[in-house]
Known about the structure:
CATH architecture of the largest domain: 2-Layer Sandwich
Number of strands: 20
Largest sheet: 6 strands, mixed
Mean pLDDT: 86
Strand content: 15-25%
CATH topology of the largest domain: Beta-Lactamase
Low-confidence stretches: 253-257
Distance between the termini: 71 Å
Structural class: alpha/beta
CATH superfamily of the largest domain: GAF domain
Amino acid sequence: MKISLQVILERLNLKEHAASLKSPYNSVFEDIRLLSPDLKALEAGILYVGNCPPENGVIIEHGSGLCLLNSTGSCPCDVLFIRSDQSFLDLFNRISQIFFRFRTQFEQLTQAILQKKGFQKVIELAFDICGNPVYLVDSSFKVLGIYGPETMPEMSATWRRLLSDGYMPYDVVMKLIESNELQTMETGICADLILSNYFYIPFINYNIRYKGRIQGHFFVVGMFKKITPGDIELTNLVGPYLLDAIRSDPNFQATRGRYYEHFIIDMLEGKNIRAEYLADQVEALQLDLNDFFTIVKIKPQQHDELRNEQIARQLENFNGSKPVHYDDSIVGIFSGKQYQQRNLYEKLGQISSNLNCHIGISDEIQGFVNLPIQYLQASNAITLGRLMELPETIYSYQDVMRYYPLLFIQNKKDLISMCHPGVMILRSYDAEHDSKYIETLETYLKNERHSLPTATDLHIHRNTLTYRLEKIEALFHFNLEDAFERERIILTQNILSYLNHASFATE
Length: 507
């Protein structure tokens, strides 16, 4: 830990015009010593405190520095001149305390990282060093840690939303992008003072980079006190520690960097979001709140970050989808005006076959607020499809939802007891006589008892269909005019299909 004379000057908190700083070399110092008359050389990285300049002939190494009390003159090093009634020993002790305090704070910061105490503890220690409210966010502006005690509610709306929502609102991010503020901010190599049109309070931004890529941002917000050059210097000192914290934290995973991701996840989880805030975010996504939406959930067989990223990128190219990583899956949202089911099925089929994954598709429902329901549908579609061991790996909720109530009945005998006795007899008759009455009855009911489409689906003549239906009626006395009986026949067919699952096959 090394600090400059600028930081020392600010921390001494002297009266106005009580000090002057000459710092042509921008040296930084790791320790402090008394400037004694018998010194032969001023060492680099050491700050010397005295009441007069060194004697002629003293070697002054590049990177050394002086703090002189009630003295003038020029030296070939950085010098802080202080005018005060205090003794130079008192001044020495005050500056020693500054070094001790910073050394202690940075040691605590190091220990918190090594002991993996979490981002929140790390950011609290960063606050002690920086002296202003601090934020740590990842590359997609998800909050990893915030600290700035009780004055936080007094901050501007944007900073408050970071606090309350846990991520930067997407509409604010879009404004930063469109105004080039974000691009300008992220090009910085060191900490910079940012005067934004959207945050209203000046703040310091430090881009946390690893191998050239931004992993996150460290913000120091000028709420408690005006931001100074020393604050910027301290932010540069704290920044590398935060990179170590990110890289060593076992729970941190780099996100895709899609700024809308956290808002979408909040929607999928059904979090309560204010109507006006919801409208702003959806508008920024270039979507219509009242449009029709469909959710696609892709569940890979194995977790592979690179492959999941490839899937997400492919989804982005499908009709303007908004993909996010959530619950070990990739979830895509398609708006109704863009949703082309046949085309989408073809593209999803390519993903499923190439990347060995299961895909669930929700119903198409009007209203962005219904995303939690649709996400549950897509998830249940995958659960049912895998449970049923269907030959396909793309499961539409519309196709498999009829099996969902059966999931909650674990006893095979209970399921069989629900079946229509006539259908069970018909099933046995087919097995004994190699007939197709079950298939005929199922297709007939599926087509709402319309003969022409039923015959077409079965690839038989209408006369053949009529004969089969009369035979079914004569042998088993079904009353197909009764809606409740038709409903029970369909339920029985669903149960029989469900019972073909492997977990029941051996019972």
